[in-house]
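User: Teach me something about this protein's shape.
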Amino acid sequence: MLNVKPFDLLLCFSAGLLVLGAVLLSPNGNVADVPTLHQFWVAAGVMGTGFMLSWRLRSLSVIWFWGVTITTRLLLLPTLPGIDVWRYLWEGYVQTLGFSPYHFPPNALELEPYRTEWWSQVVFPEVSAIYPPITQLGFRLLATIAPNLYLFKVALYWQIC
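Assistant: First, the predicted structure itself:
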């Protein structure tokens, strides 16, 4: 006969819902695509339920915490990014070229020769930067390493941890 403690069941159920929600959310992350919006909210609800159940846990080992945290982040890494990430990429990238995103909006003629294949995804190209300087420094540091979508997503996920 199995001697399973209620704490262990709650922990496994909570972790399972968080991971299942991440699996369901990964292909449905584009909230601008109306047909996938329902699946997005269902997946978010599954993850939210797992998160709320975790509130009942009195303690949690470091291994469980980081295991679930890293697993869900890795599962969500291929998810389509939100529209803002393209702006982060662009503003970091132009800073590495010596331009200030505060003085030159993305559609500035001076920046035209530097447009990337993803430039068209930058929202509000007629508006210069609105993010504060410390955030811009973060964009610049990431773009110095590589103006790469996955690098920015990993950095954003790390920030959320």
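Now, about its shape. The mean pLDDT is 88. DSSP finds six helices and no strands in the chain. If you'd like, I can walk through any region in more detail.
User: That's plenty for now, thanks!
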